[in-house]
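re: that chain from earlier
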Amino acid sequence: MVSVLGAAIALLSNTRTEDALSSRIPSAHTANRLPTASYYEVKKNGLSPFQNMCAYLGGSAIQTVGDNPVTAYRQLVQQYAKNTAGEMVTPAAAAAEANAVFINAPLSASLSGLWPRLIGVLFKRVPKFGILLGYTYVTGDTEPGYWAALVASIGSAPFINPVRMIEKQQRAFFKQTGTEKPLMEILSESAAKYFTPLFRGTIPLMGHSLASAVLGLVGQPKLQKYVEKEMKANVPALGPSAANLVASAVVSPIYVVVTNPLSRLEVIMQTNSIKGKSIGIGSALGELATDMRMNGLSGIFRGQGIGIAKAIVSLTLFHEGRMFLARQFKERNKTNGWMPATYKEK
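^ sequence. v structure.
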């Protein structure tokens, strides 16, 4: 993964932004389909919008590989809220079932759903980051704000949901089969219903995506800057990576409390058989209500602890990877004298 990202950086950075991409300036008949030359020009933040997008995608790829085992385990803890007879079980029993799956097939369980998630870096993240950063660019801001997060969350949901559905279906029947469900089998079953099952759970996803964008993509970097400033004044030995970890640790519990019930709804709606009848938002909410009556708040917040751990790992890996790639682009821009007069070193 590191070598691939390194090669990508070299490829994207080896030639001057204005000259290397001048051949991509759209002609009259393609102007409505391709970005203009300004998309590749270095802005006052030291990056071109194109480089910034690449940094976001690279950070997302690093995050996806690093947090996949935790993501898989959390889904199983939430999915096993019901046993094979359809009866609600305690959170402890669900965790024991998930543990058994990982003990019996640790490698397969840890890697389950990874390929759809990696492919999803493009199918999910290009629309989300594209809208997020595009809105930021159009409004003239240097960093994404909360309105950008809202627009990105709603606009990207139809692109994100099919990938999340496939990812969850791959590991949904681990307990019964011991292996992940083949991708082509999922697509074949979906095709028989005109691919409508791939959009199950879109409503809770929009809320989940909004919380993710507001807290993870916008809130965490703002908090990190504050933490970094305070640490520089009081603990100068600690650098940006430590500030990143602290900011992620502060944001993650808030993020998980907000999104855990939404994540439960997604799991309920996306892990039943594609061949069977879909579970609507009303039925999913009813299942959550039943779980709460039987098990209290622990029923609603199944997987909360592992969710916080996942969020800390995910946010830290994403922003660490994003910042690393952004630094490489900036250094290359400085070396070649591509920085605009408005750029200020931070």
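The chain has one domain: 2-15+46-335.
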